Amino acid sequence: MSTFTKPPRADMTVAEADEAMRHHYRTFYASCYGAPIMQTMRATGLDVAAKTVVLTFPVTDTMLNPVGTLHGGAIVMIADTATSTALGFFEPAAFASVTVDLTCQFIGASRPGDLVDVRCVVTKVGKSMAYMRFDFTEHGKPDKVLASGVHTKFVLKPKM
């Protein structure tokens, strides 16, 4: 199902992670809702041991609410897809999963042209549940939080 077939190597570079994720967005998400947004995302940080990836995207006009800032619905869609991508990247066997809970707190705002970082952490993967957390921040400014939350997924088991 996922384009990820094995976990990343401990010595994987950010550029290699970026290419793997961009390939995933171009193929797996090619015709899904939000595909144009996901295809603008770039991996800009990676910590394989901590199962953490940072993805960066530009805020565009199609992502805005009527006030002219990044829409909460766009944030949640990006959070869902980005954390699911991190889960598939670090734990390929758990990629086939469905959301049980996604909670987000909206803290700050961003405008068209801003770059936003999404830090995704896979915190735990059990037999049937996977847990991730995420933070949206101004690009390169991890202390300038825009949104933060957690994502819980039920891991589907393949039928034999």
Automatic annotation (TrEMBL):
Protein name per the record: Thioesterase domain-containing protein
Every Thioesterase domain range: 68-136
Organism of derivation: Polyrhizophydium stewartii
This protein's UniProt keywords: Hydrolase
InterPro entries reported in the protein's UniProt record: ACOT13 (IPR039298), HotDog_dom_sf (IPR029069), PAAI_dom (IPR003736), Thioestr_dom (IPR006683)
A Pfam family recorded for this sequence: 4HBT
Top-level taxon of the source organism: Eukaryota
Gene3D superfamilies for this protein: Hotdog Thioesterase (3.10.129.10)
Membership in a protein family: Belongs to the thioesterase PaaI family.
